[in-house]
Specification:
Layout (H helix, E strand, L loop, with lengths): L16 E3 L16 E5 L2 E3 L4 E3 L4 E10 L5 E7 L2 E5 L1
Antiparallel strand pairs: 1-4, 2-3, 2-7, 4-5, 5-6
Length: 86
């Protein structure tokens, strides 16, 4: 989390790892009640499906390809990850 951006008073602390998939053990619904931003290597990304700050990666959809269950295939991008509330 970036110290320059203040956290909203009612918002929970941002976790080290977060996923948008509700079936994932890393999904925290309370975080998604607020707008969050994710930067990878100092560029803001809007297509992130999952991130991990400590390991330094984000997962993004790999084009329009989907698996046999209809979920998008994800590719892992590595770098410096910053997460903040907008």
């Amino acid at each position: 989390m970036t110290e320059a951006t203040p956290t909203p008073a009612s918002a929970p602390a941002l976790p080290d790892r977060l996923s948008i998939d509700p079936r994932s053990p890393h999904h925290v619904a309370a975080v998604f009640e607020h707008d969050i931003g994710i930067r990878l290597n100092d560029r803001e990304r809007f297509d992130v499906a999952e991130y991990c700050i400590s390991e330094g990666w984000v997962k993004v959809p790999a084009g329009k390809t989907v698996d046999r269950k209809g979920q998008p295939l994800l590719m892992k991008l590595k770098g410096k990850v910053e997460v903040f509330y907008k």
